[in-house]
Design a protein that fits this description.
By secondary structure, this protein is an all-alpha fold. The chain contains 20 helices and four strands. It has helices at 9-25, 37-63, 68-92, 94-101, 121-128, 136-159, 164-184, 194-212, 220-238, 247-269, 308-318, 381-390, 399-407, 410-420, 427-439, 447-452, 461-471, 555-564, 566-569, 588-599; strands at 107-109, 114-116, 498-499, 532-533. A two-stranded antiparallel sheet has the order 1-2. It has a two-stranded antiparallel ribbon with strand order 3-4. Helix 3 (68-92) packs across helix 7 and helix 7 (164-184) packs antiparallel against helix 8 (194-212). The relative contact order is 0.09.
Length: 604
């Protein structure tokens, strides 16, 4: 994105195409071209041409001051066309996709402490719903930007080569995208038209599978996928109301079935795995399969790869007071296993028994986040562990002193030598074993997980209603993404988001909390002021009190805060609030159902 600000678009497109093509050739890692991949590329280019035409038609409508309903209808048609090529654009051109259909929020250049203006379909949605004539010039400006992106799509897909394994991987990711972002209405937060759009994304998956199938008449897996997609589309057409749609049955009965059948197609076609470490294992049938997630996608490098031996050693050290300065405190002081590795206090206590700045976050599922601590000041768990150990208020340890103790302990030294094949323990190894233990804490065995794996009695009727509200009317899944229920964005899981909620100092919601959060490290970036990482909701019933400051004693208080519209809803001046300030209009009974559902996220 830095480059885009400095060079002409055409040069960037050519460079991107060259680098992508080079990556295809390096090491001959991709399967030789078979199936009708020229047809696949042709379909993408054809769809993009329709997309460009519709952008221009919409621009004409805006220029001629057409009525709002006419423009909204044309905009919905435009979004549907994008959905037909979403699987390809998101996979092969992820940077362009961010500016075509990304959130209507600034893109942050962290290293340079700058913001890039948001653009694309979600920005235009805000301009069309509702449309006001005073925004005419602004609307045309963003439509012109969108036209530039269509040129990028055309040029790239004319230049790059694609392989069958890549196409399959992209289609699989699209089903996972639909199962998380699509099903929550992530990219249509205002219009809420996502249920109308999903059939077109599913049809595009089926069409592309037909194009890459080598033996269509004999391809039973392809026929089964077609039947499953037809069934899903029929269910979608029965109800397009986001507030009443039956998400809790649609995901396991339709989307999980389609993703499972994709693996059968892959086997039947003999498609190899893409040789890239990804968050989801290549053999995971769906989001909710046991051991679906790969912790190594969240480590700093291959030498930090997870192993049971590392986790076991990390657990010993996690519980050992050897990590603190005076051997008077271990990690379990503030991260108690029975409390989902929190301490049950509003704010943790320092070595001097003084209140620290923030609430101790849960370590369960922390391994599936890019950004540790509430303010995300460390990229990974390795950095997080050393920060806590060396913090003067928390453990006041010295990593070199600790290593001296470890290297003089025959038992510990023997374990480090066995795992790392080194003469003595090193700092990065200590960090790695502690991080490995934390990565082992994700169990994925809640009642919700079991329900999604086919056990329809695993959740109560109230919890099922709560999930439907969680995804639909309450819009919780817009930030707490299924299935991790944190801010790590599916289906690639390469980025963890932060949000500005406008949090108060406590559940009375009378005084705004002035903690700058991530903004402390980016003082010139307005969008990051008072922003905090979106934590997981798994095991949430065990981690009270809530929010970064521990100011909300119960989940009921938290839900009342969201129901009102966050800080803005309570009258706070929070210009950069990312949480919608539109009241959710949830009843007390509906809130109880949602809380009941969140109880179903507890590990068993």
């Amino acid at each position: 994105m830095k480059i885009l600000l400095k060079y002409p678009v055409l040069l960037i497109v050519c460079i991107a195409a060259f680098l992508f093509a080079l990556s295809q050739c390096k090491g001959n890692r991709h399967q030789p071209v078979d199936g009708d991949l020229s047809t696949v590329k042709g379909e993408i280019i054809k769809t993009n041409a329709s997309f460009e035409k519709q952008v221009n038609e919409l621009m004409v409508l805006v220029s001629k001051n057409a009525d709002e309903k006419t423009m909204q209808k044309k905009f919905e048609e435009l979004r549907i066309t994008y959905k037909k090529m979403e699987w390809a654009v998101e996979y092969f051109l992820p940077n362009s996709a961010r500016f075509i259909n990304g959130p209507a929020l600034p893109e942050i250049e962290m290293d340079e402490h700058t913001e890039l203006e948001p653009e694309g379909l979600q920005v235009l949605e805000e301009l069309f719903y509702p449309y006001t004539a005073e925004n005419k010039d602004e609307t045309i400006r963003f439509l012109k930007k969108l036209t530039n992106k269509t040129n990028t799509i055309k040029t790239n897909f004319q230049a790059i080569s694609i392989s069958k394994d890549q196409v399959f991987d992209a289609l699989r990711q699209e089903i996972f995208r639909i199962s998380s972002l699509g099903i929550s209405g992530f990219d249509t937060p205002i219009s809420g038209t996502f249920l109308k759009e999903m059939p077109y994304a599913l049809e595009a998956v089926h069409l592309t599978l037909q194009q890459i199938s080598t033996e269509k008449p004999k391809d039973q897996a392809l026929k089964n996928i077609g039947t499953a997609i037809d069934s899903a589309i029929a269910a979608l057409k029965k109800n397009t109301d986001r507030n009443t749609f039956d998400y809790v049955h649609f995901i396991p009965d339709h989307l999980n079935k389609i993703s499972t059948l994709l693996l059968e197609f892959k086997k039947q076609e003999g498609i190899p795995d893409i040789e890239v470490t990804s968050a989801l294992h290549k053999n995971a049938a769906d989001f909710f399969s046991k051991d679906a997630f790969n912790p190594n996608a969240f480590t700093p490098g291959k030498e930090f790869a997870f192993s049971d031996e590392k986790a076991a050693l990390g657990k010993q050290l996690f519980n050992d007071k050897i990590l603190s300065n005076n051997n008077n405190r271990s990690c379990t002081t503030c991260h108690i296993p029975e409390k989902a590795f929190t301490d049950g206090m509003a704010k943790s206590m320092s070595l001097d028994n003084a209140e620290l700045q923030r609430n101790a976050p849960s370590l369960n599922y922390a391994g599936f986040q890019h950004g540790q601590f509430w303010d995300m000041r460390k990229d990974d768990l390795e950095g997080q562990s050393s920060d806590v150990i060396s913090n003067k208020e928390e453990m006041h340890g010295d990593l070199n002193v600790i290593l001296g103790k470890i290297n003089q302990d025959p038992k510990y030294l023997s374990e480090f030598r066995k795992i790392y094949q080194s003469q003595k323990a090193e700092v990065w190894q200590l960090q790695n074993v502690l991080a490995s233990y934390i990565r082992s804490l994700a169990r994925f065995n809640s009642h919700f997980d079991n329900y999604m794996r086919g056990n329809k009695s695993a959740m109560t009727e109230s919890q099922q209603q709560g999930f439907n509200l969680f995804v639909g009317k309450a819009q919780c899944a817009l930030c707490h993404f299924i299935p991790l229920f944190n801010g790590t964005v599916p289906p690639n899981f390469k980025k963890t988001e932060q949000e500005v909620l406008g949090t108060a100092v406590n559940g009375d919601n009378k005084t705004f909390d002035q903690d700058p959060g991530r903004g402390k490290f980016h003082e010139t970036v307005e969008a990051l002021q008072h922003s905090f990482k979106t934590p997981t909701l798994r095991n949430i019933s065990k981690t009270a009190p809530y929010m970064h400051n521990g100011g909300y004693k119960t989940l009921k208080e938290v839900m009342n805060f969201y129901n009102k519209g966050g800080g803005k809803g309570f009258g706070f001046t929070v210009e950069n609030q990312t949480l919608s300030d539109t009241p959710l209009q949830l009843t007390d009974k509906e809130i109880d159902h949602i809380i009941d559902f969140m109880n179903a996220l507890d590990d068993q």
